[in-house]
Amino acid sequence: MSAIPYINGMRLSNSIKQHRARLNLTQQDLAERVNVRRQTILAIEKGHFIPSTLLAFRIARELGMKVDDLFELSDTEERKR
Q1: I want to staple 13 with a disulfide (CB 3.0 to 4.6 A). Which of 1, 54, 69, 80 is the partner?
Q2: Sheet bearing 71-75, strands edge to edge
Q3: What domain range is 70 assigned to?
């Protein structure tokens, strides 16, 4: 799972790359299916970009997943203290 390290004390992770690979989809394939550029998919997978809610749902639908199963928001250790 790739992750954006910290967002207001929270960590956002995603497993897009793993599920995309499971379906033998390239970044370009997924990008075309959700109407974005390949670079957008790359940035989301690497944790450099947080997708809009609408885009997150479109990606999840194309991968046959629920958003909650594709993206994970968790407390960081700093927030728990």
Answers
A1: 1
A2: 2-7, 10-14, 71-75
A3: 2-75
